[in-house]
């Protein structure tokens, strides 16, 4: 189950009340930094921008591909371990604005994680170390350590143990 905190709102839908929940200037700053980062070919520069200006935790040697879209309003809720790859055009959300409430939740991506292109990671999920997320997956719940997952809705294709057995069988 995703771990999010719910904040009820009264009146118009929660997105209409956006600037009651987050500063306009914070969103503007995040928008500018993320747009620069999305098109920056330098992985080091992108990681520095996101760590410095967005307060994201990003481990050493982690690569965010071109067009990766971190959360625009709450990027500080994103934590990515070391030596991971976030594929092209992946979206990492730490918020959900709904009709009668909005929700916030940390996204934790472990070490040595591979996330395929065009995936969407929803708020409040943890992706365990050594996991693989197939391209185009909507990550709507926690991914166990070492698992191989994919699809929409996301399903576990191989557990850590099944992957280890498969690798052992292939390496003979």
Describe the structure.
The chain has 172 residues and is of the alpha/beta class. It has a single domain, classed as 3 Solenoid (UDP N-Acetylglucosamine Acyltransferase, domain 1). Helix content is 26%, strand content 26%. The chain is built from four helices and 17 strands. The strands form four sheets. A six-stranded mixed beta sheet has the order 3-6-11-14-16-17. Strands 2-5-10-13 form a four-stranded parallel beta sheet, covered by helices on one side. Strand 16 (148-150) and strand 17 (155-158) form a beta hairpin. Helix 2 packs antiparallel against helix 3. The longest helix has 16 residues, at 24-39. It starts with a strand and ends with a helix. The model has no long low-confidence stretch (mean pLDDT 96). Pfam families: Hexapep_2 (PF14602). It comes from Scopulibacillus cellulosilyticus.
């Amino acid at each position: 189950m995703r771990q999010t905190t719910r904040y009820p709102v009264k009146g118009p839908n929660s997105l209409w009340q956006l600037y009651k929940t987050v500063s306009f200037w914070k969103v503007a700053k995040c928008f500018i930094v993320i747009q620069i980062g999305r098109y920056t070919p330098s992985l080091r520069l992108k990681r520095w921008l996101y760590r410095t200006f967005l307060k994201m935790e990003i481990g050493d040697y982690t690569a965010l591909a071109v067009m990766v879209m971190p959360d625009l309003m709450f990027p500080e809720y994103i934590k990515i371990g070391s030596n991971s790859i976030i594929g092209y055009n992946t979206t990492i959300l730490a918020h959900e604005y709904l009709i009668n409430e909005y929700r916030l939740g940390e996204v934790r991506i472990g070490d040595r994680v591979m996330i395929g292109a065009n995936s969407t990671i929803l708020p409040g999920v943890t992706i365990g170390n050594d996991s693989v997320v197939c391209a185009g997956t909507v990550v709507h719940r926690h991914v166990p350590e070492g698992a191989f997952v994919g699809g929409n809705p996301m399903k576990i294709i191989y557990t850590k143990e099944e992957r280890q057995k498969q690798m052992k069988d292939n390496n003979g």
